[in-house]
Design brief:
binds magnesium ion, seven-stranded antiparallel β-sheet, 15 helices, 40% helix, binds adenosine monophosphate, alpha+beta, two-stranded antiparallel ribbon
Length: 475
């Protein structure tokens, strides 16, 4: 049935087999009453050779989970623990998802080993008292978050497929009953900090060594070095500090930065109660249940650093504690450097030296913090040079303006027609709701599709962040 597969591009691999004995359990997908294809990400599918599937084949694989040729024969639910809002929970694991298949992306997309994983695919040994399902609205929200983040330069999992599954779900945070869906995402790895925490909790020292080896070899493409645990922690520190910086420059609040939601590759994933903060409001929180603001906008770097410290803690049987702490200490400086680089990237600027860049970014953040200006509007205006005193009055903006004068525009920074539009593309909560409403009311998906198109155009206007693998953007 898969004659349509581009076998020259589709390269399944089964790396997970080498650690499945201690990290995964075979599970079955739920048999859904319906499978209605709602979203297929052909741009992402092209990078792994799956775009040539017709819709019926797509549904057979990503709604009913018939194995892909030469990929793993059965879904695997992964085991993990984690700190949720700083409280340790040994009862986590893939409760409504599984790893469906692993495959190599094309060389031009980066050549990484990628995972197709699910959300809402049914019960697993880790479902606890929950239903193993995903709401359709949750799926739509995940499309919007991932598309927007990708276009704003964040390294993120991509929403690969959404299939409506015809069940009625009851949820506290949505009008219920509400519609159900199964989602497939394309991720750079499924191993998270909580995967290591679980092994440490059970004193599985040898398995920790095997998992370190798996991550270095298959996910990070790094030589193990003298102390593999330190090589791993170094990479995680670098990638997660960049992740935190990327959230700030995107104006994004993930909402649930628990250690089970932080991937070893530093790729952003698992979008629940996320929001984009309209203004640079440090205390802006996304999750209604985050009453102390632990994961507020400006606390995200600190929150992720804390999670990475839990990884370090899980590695103490494989490296000297002092050496692990040394590596952890690198995080704040990397975060700051990446924040500055990404801030200038979003503005299409280059700086003659690091101090000039830093002076500007500090002044701009200072001005944004006390102002009513929308984050997206700031980046849009300043990139276009629309930053005169009438629009941006007062001493703090004047300081930012004068620091801005020492920077130069990147060649081609304004080439894309996006920069001639009136309004920057945004994804504030009112817009999310406005896209969902016609779907809920009359199955009208047009607003979603046109928004995805607009977001992708914005992504092309920005180009890619130097040094980031940008799988599906090169077109
Ligand atoms: P999350 O907040 O999405 O990272 O999920 C935390 C934990 O709860 C993970 O172990 C999930 O698999 C599990 N979980 C979340 N929602 C459900 C659900 N509807 N059914 C089963 N498990 C769930
Ligand atoms: Mg999670």
């Amino acid at each position: 049935m898969d004659e349509a597969l581009k076998t020259d591009i589709f390269h399944p691999e089964r790396a997970i087999d080498s650690i499945a004995d201690f990290i995964a359990d075979p599970v079955q997908a739920a048999a859904f009453p319906q499978t209605i294809l709602r979203f297929r990400n052909d741009r992402a599918a092209r990078t792994v050779g799956l775009d040539s599937l017709d819709d019926a084949q797509w549904i057979a694989h990503f709604g009913r989970f018939n194995p892909l040729p030469d990929a793993q024969p059965a879904p695997l639910a992964l085991r993990y623990h984690g700190h949720q809002f700083r409280a340790y929970n040994p009862d986590l694991g893939d409760g409504r998802g599984f790893l469906f298949a692993q495959m190599r992306e094309t060389e031009s997309a980066g050549g990484r080993l990628l995972d197709l994983g699910t959300k809402g695919s049914g019960l697993t040994p880790w479902s606890r008292t929950a239903d193993g399902r995903l709401t359709l609205k949750g799926g739509v929200r995940e499309i919007l978050a991932t598309e927007m983040l990708e276009s704003l330069g964040v390294t993120t999992s991509r929403t690969f497929s959404i299939i409506e599954t015809g069940e009625d779900l009851v949820r506290g945070d949505e009008p219920s009953p509400t519609r159900s869906a199964v989602m497939v995402r394309l991720s750079h790895g499924h191993i998270r900090i909580g995967s290591f925490q679980r092994l440490a909790y059970h004193d599985q020292t040898e398995e920790i060594a095997r998992l370190i080896d798996y991550c270095l070899r298959h996910l990070l493409a790094l030589e193990p070095g003298e102390v593999p645990a330190l090589t791993l922690l170094n990479a995680v520190v670098e990638r997660t500090a960049d992740l935190a910086a990327s959230y700030m420059v995107a104006g994004f609040v993930h909402g649930v930065l628990n250690s089970d939601n932080i991937a070893i590759t530093g790729e952003s994933f698992d979008y629940g109660p996320w929001r984009f903060t309209p203004r640079w409001e440090p205390g802006f929180t996304a999750a209604y249940f985050d009453q102390t603001g632990l994961y507020a906008f400006a606390r995200q770097a600190e929150a992720i650093h804390w999670d990475v410290a839990q990884l370090a803690q899980s590695l103490v049987s494989h490296a000297e504690a002092d050496a692990l702490v040394e590596v952890l200490r690198r995080y704040p400086a990397i975060y700051e450097a990446r924040l500055i680089e990404r801030f200038l990237w979003r503005l299409g600027l280059t700086a003659p030296d690091g101090d000039t860049a830093r002076t500007f970014v500090i002044a701009a953040v200072e001005a944004l913090r006390g102002s009513d200006v929308l984050i997206d509007r700031f980046f849009f205006d300043w990139r276009r040079g629309d930053h005169d005193e009438a629009r941006y009055p007062g001493a703090v903006w004047e300081k930012a303006r004068s620091a801005f004068g020492a920077l130069s525009q990147r060649p081609g920074a304004l080439d894309h027609p996006y920069w001639q539009s009136d309004t920057p593309c945004s994804m504030h909560i009112d817009e999310v709701e406005a896209i969902w409403a016609p779907i809920a009311e009359r199955d009208d998906w047009s607003a979603l599709h046109s928004k995805v198109e607009a977001i992708r155009a914005m992504g092309q206007a920005h180009g890619s962040v130097p040094g980031q693998p940008r799988a599906s953007r090169g077109e």
